[in-house]
Amino acid sequence: MVPLIEINGLTKYFGDLCAVDHIDLEVGNEIFGLLGPNGAGKSTTVRLLTTLLTPNSGSARVCGYDVVKEPNKVRESISYVPQDMAVDIKLTGRENVRLYAKIYRVPDRENQVDNVLELMELTERADDLVRTYSGGMRRRLELAQALVHKPNVLFLDEPTLGLDVAARKKIWEHISMLRERGMTIFMTTHYMEEADEYCDRVAIIDKGNIVTVDSPKNLKQRLGTGASMNDVFLENIKTAEEEGFDAFRFRSMLRRRT
Ligand SMILES: Nc1ncnc2c1ncn2[C@@H]1O[C@H](COP(=O)(O)OP(=O)(O)OP(=O)(O)O)[C@@H](O)[C@H]1O
């Protein structure tokens, strides 16, 4: 596996709180899911890897570039789709993507805008205002924007959050298609069944520590016949429970989100 993302002892404090605690990870050309309860450190990890935060110690390389020493090179090689809407509803889909193409100084701009709209199956609605788009279409538009400068690694924070079942399935079809075209996807999710079905490997993070990393299949097998990813998740955050952490909160969160 050629690592597209290499993380060594990466650590981030917010005041006294250690949000990411000496994590080590290697991610190759795959769909990699970072799972964990609320406040576990998922978004902080993604923000460190996308150069939006600076670590207190440790290092990370993305596409061969150091996130602290070569942030511009990292940004040119990646895209990041955060949870909150990153599209302007007062513009058309095409205008939104065009804006990104301009910011990234994409060569042969109009062609590339057409290409990514087509890739996300938005061509027919490309000239309609985004205000009229469904949630799933808006998410696909965010992906189109993210793809316009041809990144090698795509970071997605909860890509299917808030979408209905059909829209979630469609987003996953698109993410899987990108993976088949050679893109590396690093994503966070609370949907265990989606991680199970679509991720090549997952890591579970709890209180800033990576508790386990493997394929969903291997993780389930380790627990025994009939185990689900929910079981894997709960098993791996058990330590927190044993330490008196509020397991009820985790479980109710899981029930809400799965
Ligand atoms: N800018 C910040 N300032 C202070 N504390 C922060 C900041 N960002 C995150 N934290 C804290 O760091 C810890 C990890 O937060 P993070 O957002 O990375 O968790 P998460 O796993 O993404 O959670 P969620 O699933 O709820 O999005 C939490 O305790 C959070 O309150």
UniProtKB/TrEMBL annotation:
SMART domains: AAA (SM00382). One of its GO terms (biological process) is doxorubicin transport. It is a peripheral membrane protein. Its main location: membrane. Transmembrane segments: none annotated. InterPro entries: AAA+_ATPase, ABC_transporter-like_ATP-bd, ABC_transporter-like_CS, DrrA, P-loop_NTPase. GO terms for cellular component: plasma membrane. Residues 5-232 form the ABC transporter domain. It is found in: Cell membrane. The keyword Translocase applies. The keyword Nucleotide-binding applies. Keywords: ATP-binding, Cell membrane, Membrane, Nucleotide-binding, Translocase, Transport. Signal peptide: none annotated. One of its GO terms (molecular function) is ATP hydrolysis activity. Pfam families: ABC_tran (PF00005). Belongs to the ABC transporter superfamily. Drug exporter-1 (DrugE1) (TC 3.A.1.105) family. This is ABC-2 type transport system ATP-binding protein. It comes from Methanococcoides vulcani.
